[in-house]
Amino acid sequence: MDWGTEAKYAHEGRIRGQRGAWEKREILGENIYTDFCVWCNGYADEKAKTDPKVFAKFLKENNVQITERQREYIAINHFGYVYDIDKKKWVKG
User: Quick one: which H or E segment has residue 39?
Assistant: First the structure.
């Protein structure tokens, strides 16, 4: 295999990796949370980035729809929620 072919395969591999990372961010809702953080920088304060009520306001004001999976991922990873099996509901952890 010559150098040009190897470079082409390496480039295609990087592109697939970047596309996969973007798709994962899209599926999990990381892109929505990033938009929320940018919105907080302009319209709220630093503490708002961890406030689920402010996040709900952002979603409503900007007419953003999120899936249940995205809602769960963001609640766990950015707002500190955990699922309480005994109470059968999400609670702040």
Answer: helix 30-43
Helix (H, G, I), strand (E, B) or coil at 92: strand
Torsion of CA 6, 20, 63, 43, to 10 degrees: -70
Structural domain that includes position 56: 3-92
* pTM summary value: 0.75
Q: Which amino acid is at 73?
A: Y
pLDDT tens, position by position, 30-39: 999 999 999 9
Per the CB < 8 A criterion, the answer to whether 59 and 66 are in contact is yes
* Confidence at residue 23, expressed as pLDDT on a 0 to 100 scale: 77
Residues in CB range of 37: below 8 A, 6 or more apart: 49
Least Cα distance to 81 among 60, 51, 56, 58 occurs for 51
| Cβ neighbours of 22 (radius 10 Å) | 12
How many structural domains compose the chain? 1
